[in-house]
Amino acid sequence: MDTVNNVSNFLLKPFFIGLYIGLAGCLIIFIRSKFKERKLKKEITNLKHHLQMKLEIEAEEIERRKMEIENLKKENENLRITLQSYYQKPGRREMRQLHVYQKAVEILTDKAPGFAPSWQSALREGEEEMRKAERGVIPFLRKLLPGKPTDSSALEDPQ
Questions:
Q1: In angstroms, what CA-CA distances link 8 with 16, 18, 84?
Q2: What's residue 159's pLDDT?
Q3: Average pLDDT for residues 55-72, to the nearest whole number?
Q4: Pairwise CA distance, residues 127 & 133, whole Å
Q5: CA 10 – CA 6 distance, rounded (Å)
Q6: Res. 88: pLDDT tops 90
Q7: Read out DSSP for 135-148?
């Protein structure tokens, strides 16, 4: 029993008591670090899962946008072809040319000071000739007179 007493006296010295307290503190810190490590591993796994889901969603979105862009390119090409065929229809080219002439007249009216009065008189003469053509006077006279008259005053309405 003496040895047990000696050993217990030896183990109860202040050095060993400090050692026990230090080891207990280390054990507590170790256990807390293991819990924290588990928590962080769970969080990392959760973040990896979220990242994987985000990448999948973005990949689907990118694929959808690529398909949308492809469809828009096809639609654009179809519209371009339709527009070209529209311009090729009879009368469409002339209508486009008339729009170009109208724009040119507007520009000249703004820029050339003497152009507007001359243009207005020429426009009135043209409108009068079209009215006569619509009434049938000019086509009738053209049928009667061989050749092409150079002056529209020879074809005036006899009213």
A1: 11, 15, 107
A2: 43
A3: 96
A4: 10
A5: 6
A6: no
A7: HTHHHHHHHHS-S-
Q: How many CB atoms lie within 10 A of CB 5?
A: 9
Residue 96 CB contacts under 8 Å (≥ 6 apart), including other chains: 87
- What type of residue sits at position 55? L
The answer to whether residue 44 scores a pLDDT higher than 80 is yes
Q: What's residue 119's pLDDT?
A: 72
DSSP, collapsed to helix, strand or coil, labels residue 12 as coil
| This prediction's pTM | 0.39
What does the angle CA 123 – CA 152 – CA 142 come to, to the nearest 5 degrees? Answer: 125
Question: What does the pLDDT read at residue 134?
Answer: 65
Residue corresponding to tokens 């490590």: 37
Does the pLDDT at position 66 exceed 70? yes
CA 156/CA 141 separation, integer angstroms: 10
- Residue 41 has what DSSP assignment? H
* Extents of the domains making up the chain: 1-88, 91-159
CA contacts within 13 A on the Cβ side of 136: 0
